[in-house]
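Project outcomes to date are best conveyed with an example. Our students and postdoctoral researchers have been running inverse folding experiments weekly, and each run begins with a structure described purely in tokens. The record below, which covers 256 residues, was selected by the lab manager from last quarter's runs and is presented without edits.
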């Protein structure tokens, strides 16, 4: 069997059952739970012929590695990535919308970013292999199924991957509060990747210099920065809004 890991929480387990049931080895549930939500999950597992084991709460916490398991955990196979960024771009029938994350190390932030990416139809999330958290059980739980739905591609050299995206015609916009323009001044209808760094530190120098354009989120209050997942939601919402309602031609740079 391939390498396995444990995921926990209803959204994460149901998301994996929905997206890739063959990768679910077995499911562990709290024997004390008999509510409708648990019944739905058990029915979903039975329909997909996935083995279910009832265990007590203490053992479940040990299996999940957390007391915040919501009464369910699952052992799942870790499969090799079935996609590359070139495969994803080649298969698209619309201009790509990508999210590039530079150095997000908090699993809660990555999970929230994946959830936001799924909500706004992002075609892939890219991040460096080093200085980044990667997909783990906490990320899967926070992502509420999005970790199984949105392609996540960890790359060895982020700057090189960004240059390759530019060669494919993808316009790279870095979110930076020091930028002269705010995101509403840009036309975001073409092939696009939003590039975001961590809260406080922001983008690394080489990442910032590799972007085609920098843009800031208008901030009217006293705080100087947003959580990366909140910033991603704002940027991606503006991109999707403009794709649904293209702005009139202006003097701002066109992302085509």
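After processing, the design step wrote out the following sequence:
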């Amino acid at each position: 069997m391939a390498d396995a890991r444990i995921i926990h929480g209803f959204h994460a387990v149901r998301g994996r059952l929905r997206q890739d049931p063959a990768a679910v080895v077995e499911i562990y549930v709290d024997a004390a739970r008999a509510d409708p939500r648990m019944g739905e999950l058990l029915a979903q597992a039975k329909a997909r012929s996935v083995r279910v084991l009832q265990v007590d709460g203490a053992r479940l916490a040990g299996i999940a590695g957390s007391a915040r398991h919501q009464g369910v955990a699952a052992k799942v196979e870790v499969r090799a990535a079935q996609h590359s960024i070139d495969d994803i771009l080649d298969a698209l029938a619309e201009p790509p919308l990508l999210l590039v994350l530079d150095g997000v190390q908090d699993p809660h932030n990555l999970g929230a970013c994946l959830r936001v990416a799924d909500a706004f139809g992002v075609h892939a999330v890219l991040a460096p292999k080093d200085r980044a958290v990667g997909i783990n059980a906490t990320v899967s739980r926070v992502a509420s199924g999005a970790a199984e739905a949105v392609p996540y591609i960890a790359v060895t050299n982020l700057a090189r991957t960004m240059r390759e995206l530019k060669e494919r015609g993808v316009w790279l916009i870095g979110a930076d509060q020091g930028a002269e323009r705010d995101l509403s001044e840009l036309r975001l209808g073409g092939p696009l990747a939003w590039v975001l760094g961590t809260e406080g530190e922001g983008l690394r120098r080489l990442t910032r210099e590799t972007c085609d354009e920098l843009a800031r989120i208008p901030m009217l209050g006293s705080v100087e920065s947003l959580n990366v997942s909140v910033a991603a939601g704002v940027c991606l919402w503006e991109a999707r809004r403009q794709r649904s309602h293209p702005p009139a031609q202006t003097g701002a740079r066109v992302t085509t």
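The chain has ten helices and ten strands. Confidence is low (pLDDT under 50) at residues 250-256. The training component of this project remains on track.
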